[in-house]
Every structure is written in structure tokens, then in C-alpha cells.
């Protein structure tokens, strides 16, 4: 079940962040800032537990950025990520975005395949974007 990301979801989301991203994980203040800024954030709950989360920031007049998508490893490849991206896609359309953009690690092929299945295409590369690993980020775009 997908629902609004609330402040009490931050702690379980941080556990997922640590599992997936290690030293490059987002911090609690980063999520607090996203929520305080009014960005669109959702969680995927299974039996009341947070197993995934995703966020979208609208950039008027016609862009939206997917800020993050994370799914607990034991729930990956079960449609959780796809459900969250579907939800973000619908919200982007609802707010009038004509283009959705995102950054994804150049070595994260499963995520790249997921985004490509929606029609996202690589439009750029940010060298050394993810720190401290110095991993490049691919900038992907999809027109609505």
C-alpha cells in the first residue's frame, strides 16, 4: 500500500538508505527538509512496515525531478519500485509537468532498466556526483 511519507517514516527510511547507499545515504535532516519544503514523498507499506519510498519535486512551470527511490533489498523485484515510480509519474502529470528528470548512479543498472522501461533516456552525465565513492550520475529525462 502506498501512502504519504510522514515524519515518523524517516527512521525506517534511514535504515533502508543505509542498506542501499551506505556512506552516500541521505540523512534525517535531508528528509526533514524535503518534507518541510512540501515536496511529494510517498512510502510503500507492507504489513505496516516501510519497505520502499520515493520523492518528487515539482519545478514550475513544467518540470519535475525524481529525488529518490529506494526499496528494501528483500522487497526488490516485487513491483514495489514500479508502483512508487507509477505514483510519482501520476503526480508529475497532475501538477502539469511536461518532463520528468532524475539522476541515477552510472553503476546502478537495475534502476536504469526500470527508468528506461518508462521511456527515460540518458541526456547527460555528472562526473563524480556521488561521494565519497566518486561514482558518476546519469541524468535521465522522460517527456510526459
Please tell me the overall pLDDT: 95
Could you describe the largest sheet, including whether it forms a barrel? 7 strands, mixed
Query: Span between N and C termini?
Result: 25 Å
Stated plainly, the CATH topology is called Aminopeptidase
Series of H and E elements: EHHEEEHEHEE
Helix count equals 4
E-strand count: 7
Unreliable runs? none
Share of helix among residues?
Answer: 25-40%
Strand arrangement, major sheet: 1-2-3-4-5-7-6
| Radius of gyration, taken over Cα atoms and rounded to an integer in Å | 14 Å
Would you state the CATH class? Answer: Alpha Beta
CATH superfamily heading: Gcn5-related N-acetyltransferase (GNAT)
Global outline: globular
The CATH architecture can be named as: 3-Layer(aba) Sandwich
How many distinct domains?
1
Subcellular location: Cytoplasm
GO cellular component, one term: ribosome
Organism: Luedemannella helvata
Function: Acetylates the N-terminal alanine of ribosomal protein bS18.
List its traits.
31% helix, [Ribosomal protein bS18]-alanine N-acetyltransferase, single chain, globular, Aminopeptidase, 4 helices, 144 residues, alpha+beta, seven-stranded mixed β-sheet
Describe this structure in words.
With 144 residues, the chain is of the alpha+beta class. It has a single domain (2-143), classed as Gcn5-related N-acetyltransferase (GNAT) (Aminopeptidase). Helix content is 31%, strand content 39%. Strands 1-2-3-4-5-7-6 form a seven-stranded mixed beta sheet, with helices on both faces. The two termini are 25 Å apart. The model has no long low-confidence stretch (mean pLDDT 95).
Amino acid at each position: 500500500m502506498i501512502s504519504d511519507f510522514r515524519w515518523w517514516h524517516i527512521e525506517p527510511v534511514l535504515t533502508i538508505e543505509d542498506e542501499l547507499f551506505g556512506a552516500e545515504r541521505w540523512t534525517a535532516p535531508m528528509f526533514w527538509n524535503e518534507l518541510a519544503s512540501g515536496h511529494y514523498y510517498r512510502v510503500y507499506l507492507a504489513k505496516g512496515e516501510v519497505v520502499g519510498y520515493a520523492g518528487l519535486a515539482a519545478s514550475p512551470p513544467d518540470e519535475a525531478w525524481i529525488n529518490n527511490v529506494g526499496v528494501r533489498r528483500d522487497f526488490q523485484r516485487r513491483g514495489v519500485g514500479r508502483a512508487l515510480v507509477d505514483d510519482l509519474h501520476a503526480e508529475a502529470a497532475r501538477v502539469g509537468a511536461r518532463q520528468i528528470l532524475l539522476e541515477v548512479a552510472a553503476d546502478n543498472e537495475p534502476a536504469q532498466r526500470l527508468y528506461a522501461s518508462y521511456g527515460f533516456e540518458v541526456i547527460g552525465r555528472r562526473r563524480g556526483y556521488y561521494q565519497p565513492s566518486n561514482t558518476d550520475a546519469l541524468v535521465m529525462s522522460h517527456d510526459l
